[in-house]
Amino acid sequence: MNTTFQEFIQKCVRKLRGEDDEEELVVDYVEKNTNNMTIQMPHQLFINGEFVDAEGGKTYKTINPSDGTAICDVSLAQISDVDRAVAAAKEAFEEGEWGKMNPRDRGRLIYKSVTLQLQRPSLSS
Q1: What's the predicted TM-score (pTM) here?
Q2: Where are the alpha helices (DSSP H) in the chain?
Q3: Which is the most buried residue in 23, 39, 79, 88, by most CB within 10 A?
Q4: What DSSP element (H or E) covers 110?
Q5: Is the pLDDT of residue 118 over 70?
């Protein structure tokens, strides 16, 4: 069964830190140097709790809007990838805690998440 969003974030953090006994979460990052920082960005699709390449390995270049340069190649989802993602999301919603939660409570959680993200210190400071 799929995890709740909070469990997903906690799971990712634990796996990336190597703090659990489960298999390490492997994320194929692309590194980009910008504003005196090195940023790591996943470039694969995230479907059913895993980072995966698009079916057939198709990719496209994502473009930096400030200067028109290519940032990296990212997975280009095919119809079959979208179908798998939709099926996983449907299952998570119908069988997971998020779908059972009152819509008003879901809204509060989303609002709280956004508020917390906006309160984070800027990475460029």
Answers
A1: 0.61
A2: 5-17, 79-95, 97-100, 103-119
A3: 88
A4: helix 103-119
A5: yes
